Amino acid sequence: MFVGSYRNPGGPNEVNRNIIRHLPASVSYQKHSSRYLLRPESLLKIMMCDVVVFSGMMFRPYELSLAKLLGKKIIYIMHGCAKFECGESSSSEKRIFRYADRILCVSPTYSEMVKRAFPEIAHKVGVQMNGINWDELTAVRQAFDKSGQSKDPRRIILFGGGRPEKKNLYVCKAVQLINESGLYDLHVDVYGYYRDTDDSPLIAAIPCVTFHHVIPHDLVNVELAKSRMFIQNSQFESFGLALIDALSLGCDVLFSTNTGAKDIIPARQESDVINDITDVNEIKDKILWTFAHPNNKRLYDSIDKEKTSARTAVDNLMARCLE
Predict the structure, then answer these.
(1) Burial of 133 (C-beta count, 10 Å sphere; 0-12/13-18/19+)
(2) In whole angstroms, what is the distance from residue 115 CA to residue 110 CA?
(3) 200 and 194 in contact (C-beta within 8 Å)?
(4) Are 241 and 264 in contact (CB under 8 A)?
(5) Would you report the helix, strand and coil content of the chain in percent, each value rounded to 5?
């Protein structure tokens, strides 16, 4: 039984959609969207299965408790971490750490972070790399190319809105410095939730920035296809599917050393990686370097598309369920 949210925007939801597309017929998942039908469906299917896979932080305590009570094998695909994002673990996170037989992090980089932070569960921790829907990304790229549109050479795109852990504020400040130097006239489009209590107001006040609300995943890919550069400057990014989307759609990229997706990009170099995510001058210098030395083709071509496909990821997950 696969338990994971897949109808909403966001990276984990997209990963779950990719998993569900490739699940064998013997694996059930939550099909009802009504909250009145979802729980009875889930509880019935858990009673009938041998293994329950919880994917993402939106696990449900009743389903988890039933799986434990019935002695089912429990696998937790760990996309996020309350302790990393909020400063301390939630009660739900502590419970699934206790109950899970295996905890699978979505990149080696993230796995090492989790083992250091939670040595008491290190023996349970492994890696389940996120799978990429390469066919969908190729179709979006081909549709954009056929449309006759061209990338905006001035446009940099960021996701995550004003969430402090995304460190988008420092990227926007770096771009503003570049514009003030007269070297380029760049524009930053920031997508994500606007909140008065985070970095959103400071980001929106920077002259080179336009702040947009959250948009559906298919429109995200269209916006990436229009952009010259994508930057992922997170202090914590368990994988970072948007980085791979951006590469697939022709963007030059920069990414923090904390971005798990870097593990599938063997051609990455020092110039591609932001080491100090709060150092505006480092970010500025690496933007300028990448504009002069585009990195898209080098990085994209180095990724093993078969090894990183959604189908391969599901095959690996099924093997873990049978261990």
Answers:
(1) buried
(2) 9
(3) yes
(4) no
(5) 50, 15, 35
For residue 107 the two structure tokens come to 């990149």
Q: Are 5 and 33 in contact (CB under 8 A)?
A: no
Burial class (CB within 10 angstroms; exposed 0-12, middle 13-18, buried 19+) of 125: buried
Extract the tokens encoding 264: 């599938």
Q: What are phi and psi of 103, to 5 degrees?
A: -115, 115
- Could you tell me the strand order of the sheet in which 252-256 lies? 209-212, 187-191, 152-159, 227-232, 252-256, 273-274
Rg, the chain, Cα only: 20
- When the pLDDT of each residue in the chain is averaged and rounded to a whole number, the result is 92
6: three-class secondary structure by DSSP: coil
Alpha carbon distance 63, 42 (integer Å): 7
What digits encode the pLDDT tens for the residues 197-237? 999 999 999 999 999 999 887 788 889 999 999 999 999 89
Average pLDDT in the 305-317 region?
A: 95
DSSP letters of 218-231? HHHHHHHHHEEEEE
pLDDT tens digits along 109-148: 999 999 999 999 999 999 999 999 899 888 888 888 888 8
Distance separating alpha carbons of residues 245 and 251, to the nearest angstrom: 9
